[in-house]
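[step 3/7] fold_predict: job queued, chain A
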Amino acid sequence: MVGKRKDYLSWDEYFMAVALLSGQRSKDPNTQVGACVANSQNKIVGVGYNGFPWGCSDDELPWDREGNFLDTKYPYVCHAELNAVLNSITADLRDSRIYVVLFPCNECTKVIIQSGIQEIIYLSDKYKDTDLVRASKIMLDQARIPYRRFVPERKSILLSFYS
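[step 4/7] structure written:
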């Protein structure tokens, strides 16, 4: 008798991999962030990546990180979390969780809280010492929304277009 495979992806691995893959759609030369929203039935209901709003040219707007504010990407880029919520196939995200490559900034945290998402699973917290992330954690703690770091059990997942 043949048993089931033992090396299949856990739900956390699966959804974080989708977030990482979504981030590969970003045209940002420095940071590729993806997000994946999964509901309580483990169905993907939204994905997103960091990029400019629809109709705004990623060839004309700046990708710079430094300089005058209007000459940088910061006033124009929509973060992955915002896009995942806006791209959701449902308006009701209560009892959902969001998988994100980077811990959400304060603005995305507001969107996450207001959308009804009930848990954040993040891969990296590299900006944990910034006021933006500190503010995020203050709001999440007050709203009693848990967040946890995803600690992968495997180093990588190889995808191939050829079998």
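[step 5/7] annotate
Residues 48 and 156 are 21 Å apart (CA to CA).
The chain has four helices and five strands.
exit 0
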